[in-house]
Amino acid sequence: MIAYILRRCLYAVVILIGVNLVTFLLFFKVNTPDDMARMQLGAKRVTVEAIALWKADRGYDRPLIFNAEAQGVARLTDTLYFTKSLEMFRLEFGRADDGRDIAFEIRSRMWPSLMLAVPVFLLSLLVYISFALLMAFFRATYLDFWGVAICVGMMSVSALFYIIGGQYLVAKIWSLVPISGYAGGVDSVRFLVLPIAVGVIGGIGSGARWYRTIFLEEVGKDYVRTARAKGLGEVAVFYGHVLRNALIPILTGSVVAIPLLFMGSLLTESFFGIPGLGSYTIEAIQAQDFGVVRAMVFIGSVLYMIGLVLTDISYTLVDPRVRFE
Amino acid sequence: MFLPILLWTDALVFLLIAVAGAFAFHASRHEHLRAPWRRVLRSPAAMSSAVVLAAFLLVGILDSLHFRPAIAVGTESQMAARLKGGMSAQAWAPEVKSALDVLLERMATRKERTYSAPLATHAFSKETMELPGGGQSREFPRLKFGGAHLTDPADDWSGDILRILLRGVALALVIWCALTAVLLVAVRPNKTLNIGEFADATWKGNTDVPWRAVLVTLGVLLLVAVPAWHLSANYHVLGTDKVGQDVLYLSLKSIRTALVIGTLTTLIMLPFAVLLGMMAGFFRGWVDDLIQYAYTTLNSIPGVLLIAASVLVLQVQMEARPELFPTAAQRADFRLLFLCLILGVTSWTGLCRLLRGETLKLRELDYVQAARAFGVSKWRIMMRHILPNVMHVILISVVMDFSGLVLAEAVLSYVGVGVDPTMISYGTMINAARLEMGREPMVWWSLASAFGFMLLVVLSANLFSDAVRDAFDPRVSVVPRKTRFVLRSQRAGN
User: Does pTM top 0.95 for this prediction?
Assistant: First the structure.
């Protein structure tokens, strides 16, 4: 199994190099540093010197992948690809357009993001599974029908509506919590309750429905019939057999999302003014700060690849039938 | 006189309609394709939502017929001068309009100065006005168009609204009765039932196809649309937004944007996803490795960020080359098309993986082995034997993706990487109205209309796609039946 996991890790690195190349092409070849400079400097009548200065200031004045003027190893290292793209593997992201160190920003903004994302993730899992369990247990009854109907209705509503509606109802009309903002320490609870609730409620529709399908798929399997045939009651069949087996796809499916929790949530964070990585990304997109967007793309894919490797590991741990040679 | 304009997305919309038409024609001639569609036809929820979707589709198609209206050239001497100068005798307005704009001209052109509530006669906020005898007062000014025909709004308003509503409802009922009669005559199964019996069966809901649901939905649609249309002659039915635009007009114009994003994205990515997915499953080996590598790489980049990055790059490139886009409409249209393209790039991986798995299974089946033994070429096997058998996967994924894409548009426009800011869409409407949340009293109608229309589109799309999935997916349709049987036998046992 260790050999298998090692192989998956190697594959992840190969994928990351691909991601690195794609982002490099997008940000440096399609969209040259000259374009970036022109846009940041604003006006259309920008002098060539100003562009050169802007590029030199940020280290964009190097050749793309091969520096013919340099000597020895520097021919390969003193290039845009090496300094701007490969350096990201060392978690060195350079500076944002406002001069701050991106790596530092990410490290400090990670915590508010996690404070929001982890409770949303855990609560969601709990709520969706319970709701789905209820619907699946009373399958083909009115409870199930209306449960699914509510789910379809809820998943047809835009995520923006839950946020705006929640802010309006809870924060403005009822004045239970502040509309937006953030504070460190224990005080943060006050600011986080509403975003967490909105995050959980917003996903009930698709989440509960998806888990219900998984439960129903398990209910149709042969071992369930066997369990019934040996005289087990419906409750025992459901909790003793169906639930345990259905948890395998649910757990392995959720593992991939765990590392991505670091990235935070774009919408919720920016609406509620939580200084996490999600709002950092949105601010960067709106300010057209390519350095930050590039860094976030890279981190996002690293986390996703970690998630995939973790999924593989969890498969082997949870499901003894899965064996890799 | 007008000059027809074919924008890129228009062309693709018409291509899509042609493809759908060809597919429908093909399906109607093959029993095995007709059977699942018959199952869709029998679902009341699917038929009701199909009626709603058809109404939206109609609006979307009307909004895709673009043209530039003629403008008056003026006197004959001016015209002669134009002819002499080598120009055509006709001059075209720089602004691109659609057939829908012509239909809704009265909504589009009657702009107020700023916010006004739905059906209001007065503006939403007080303004300082000069009194005729000198001096100033602060009051709510009358609207330029909303209820402008009323002499005394305080007294006449409710009576006027009620009168228009009643007239609209009456007309809606007349139209509905006529449509019902036409429908009953048109769809009556010949010979077995006479028209009275068929009407009776429809009323009781005993028909094969749930015509009752269709008629009820149609009735509700008409009851909403016709009075609203009547009211729009004198009022702003859903109020006006910050720059005084009629919100109902904006909501109707947004339909096309939503439909284009929901359908063209899939249309653009479909050829790649199908071809690559089938190739990966069929050829295996290095082809499979390469394709898998490509989609895992794309998949591992967070979708929103990839879209954001691409749109940012596009913005820079478009700003650097303004000469490519002569009119604002073309610019906005190109950006919409690009958004579809990049959404397609991020969403093809799911379908590709599904198709790869399905093809892996199919290629081991006997009929494929037999075809191979006969020496049928690989491409021919893929086209003749594998493609028709993965068609249901493709269809299901197309209809399931639609609603997600419509919702994604709003989110992306909020982030600032969605459609062009000048393009009317639910995302831009929400984005513009969001800042007015803090106002007291709140400006709620823009948000409510955008969310309401979006809910209607997405909900009916969801219901319809569920029915399509249930009809086409062999796995799904089996599971509920089994469980239902189990439950019933249990109850019998108790």
Answer: no
